[in-house]
Amino acid sequence: MALPPQDERTVPAVVLRDLDQRPLDQALSEMQTLIDQHGHVVVVSSQAVSEGVDRRLHTIRSILETDRIALFRPNLPPLGLAVLARQLRQLASCDLSPGVLASAGRLLTHYIHAGAVLGSVTRLDRVPVGLKSHAKSWVPGSQFAVIAHPEPQLIRVGPGVALAGPEFGTWMLVAKGQLQSDWIGTTLAPAWNAMGLREATLPAESASWWGTNKLIEFCTYLPDLSVLYQLVTSVRQSVCHWCGIDVIGDRCVFCSATPPVHENQTPSG
Predict the structure, then answer these.
(1) pTM value?
(2) Model confidence over 126-137: pLDDT tens digits?
(3) Domain that holds residue 93
């Protein structure tokens, strides 16, 4: 899902629709056009999409024989992933190199808290089994609040009950499915000191990701471009020894190379 721009500088998103359903030639042509127009392409995809989409993306990169396509598939719920993609679109308007911009995705995931209020957890497989087994003892008809990222949490929704949240100022985004609840706005947002609350359309993959369509998904994020830019540029950059692109972190997001390991010299004598 491509969220509306956060500000006037936010770069438009390109949605690769039905990637595994269309003829391969069409998908190849679309990707090649994007590379020709922009030089590099960062593809952000959800772990809730079919394996066919993931295979098609790797096939496209392999056939094109290019190291200008970065495939990023973080373990975030769909709404959190949409927020992350928009943050990268914000940063794309800045003077960041393609490698640093693509690497920023892994960094910014640490500042996203993503979860949902669910009408059922019987098909939820995104949190540790221990939390699920505990939930089975709760009465039918209960609503559950779950945090999937950065640290799994699961509670039964009730008055005065909240989840551990971010220790820094954030905005909150809410996407409603087929569940009625005001707990996020009346309890969670105040407990997390959210600076504001906005609504979005529920992503298409959300029901599959959470195991139910009776849900309200939520996510907190840093909205200001200046803060995002400062976070990214404060991290040490290095040059990929294989393809020569600037990156942050220990793995190149375009060619997947890791820094070479230098063996320690054996002390003489």
Answers:
(1) 0.89
(2) 887 677 666 666
(3) 24-110+224-247
